[in-house]
């Protein structure tokens, strides 16, 4: 009987690991796509593409910039302060993905910010995003960017 329990546990563990790997790969790909649009948001259509990754009622919490309560407000700030000024780069190896039952997932990691004018990546911070999967599409419902500091 113990043998069956061990086999069932091993099967369940490998299934969860495969599911986790697929979820991580999916959200890593979406993170890349989303921030490719963010990084080129001064080009036609890219700011709208970036906006499409966010729920209309997204809450965005930024330790230095404060809170925005809608996608429109967040995108207005992105257009004003980001587009053409700097890019966001995911720090390799920092992305973590956790499934949220019957909702979606949470991603966390570290990112750096690189100024287009100088090419220097001077800032680093942590991020957390809450993603909802609805009708086959992933959108961010909550985003936090915090712990901003010089990149040393």
Automatic annotation (TrEMBL):
Keywords: Signal. The keyword Signal applies. Residues 28-140 form the DUF4440 domain. Transmembrane segments: none annotated. InterPro entries: DUF4440, NTF2-like_dom_sf. Residues 1-17 form the signal peptide. It holds the Pfam family DUF4440. Coiled coil: none annotated. This is DUF4440 domain-containing protein.
């Amino acid at each position: 009987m113990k043998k069956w329990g061990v086999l069932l546990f091993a099967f369940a563990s490998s299934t969860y690991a495969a599911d986790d790997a697929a979820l991580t790969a999916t959200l890593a790909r979406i993170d890349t796509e989303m921030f490719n649009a963010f990084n080129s948001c001064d080009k036609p259509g890219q700011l709208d593409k970036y906006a499409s990754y966010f729920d209309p009622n997204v809450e965005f919490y930024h330790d230095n910039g404060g809170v925005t309560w809608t996608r429109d407000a967040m995108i207005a700030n992105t257009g004003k302060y980001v587009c053409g000024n700097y890019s966001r780069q995911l720090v390799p190896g920092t992305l973590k993905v956790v499934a949220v039952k019957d909702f979606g997932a949470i991603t966390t990691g570290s990112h750096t910010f690189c100024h287009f004018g100088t090419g220097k990546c001077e800032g680093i911070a942590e991020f957390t995003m809450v993603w909802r999967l609805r009708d086959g599409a992933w959108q961010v419902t909550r985003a936090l960017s915090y712990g901003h500091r010089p990149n040393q």
